[in-house]
Write a structure and sequence with these properties.
By secondary structure, the protein is mostly helical. Helix content is 70%, strand content 0%.
Length: 185
């Protein structure tokens, strides 16, 4: 009989909490559950913040959050799950960065916290109370950690970079007002 230690219980709690939040957040995008807007509404939002095409962006983000979150909660394919979730949260953080750090001001605090926790779980591993452990870590090998993060980082860099380019191009030709309107009155 295996005795679980506090590390295993702590990792289980982190996985269930983080994975559950990510999965719920993703199902808002994919299915409109929990007050979400589904693919159509989320796709329109994604377009409005520079992720195009919006529907494809909403689907990719929803799948990374739902799939990554579910796999994290189960402790299955932990390196890939954590890297996918971290990549999705990096994309979300890019949207919120202009608002500063704190969530109360619309900042990236929430996305950063979920992303860093998912990344930490991918690196640390799921613990013994997990499907990875039960399956002999067949999809949780040491080499999978850098491979999963490299793939997620490359994909995230392409998507966030393309968004930044679209936003720059949209802003070209715009000119800031020469004088503050309040000053002129």
């Amino acid at each position: 009989m295996t005795a679980y230690d506090r590390r295993d219980l702590g990792l289980l709690l982190l996985r269930l909490g983080t994975g559950g939040v990510l999965a719920a957040h993703g199902t808002q995008k994919l299915f409109g559950w929990f007050g979400g807007h589904g693919i159509e509404g989320t796709g329109q939002f994604m377009e409005s913040v520079g992720y195009a095409p919006g529907k494809a962006s909403a689907t990719a983000a929803g799948l990374a959050e739902t799939g990554g979150g579910t796999l994290l909660a189960l402790g299955l394919a932990t390196p890939a799950a954590g890297a996918a979730a971290a990549g999705a949260m990096a994309g979300a953080a890019a949207v919120h960065t202009p608002n500063g750090f704190f969530n109360q001001s619309g900042g990236y605090e929430y996305a950063a916290t979920l992303g860093l926790t998912a990344a930490g779980l991918a690196v640390t591993g799921p613990g013994r109370i997990s499907l990875d452990h039960a399956l002999g870590h067949a999809v949780n090998r040491g080499w999978m950690i850098p491979a999963a993060f490299a793939a997620a980082a490359a994909g995230t860099a392409l998507v966030v970079g393309a968004r930044a380019k679209r936003l720059r191009q949209a802003k070209e030709g715009e000119q800031d007002p020469l004088f503050d309107e309040d000053y002129m009155e």
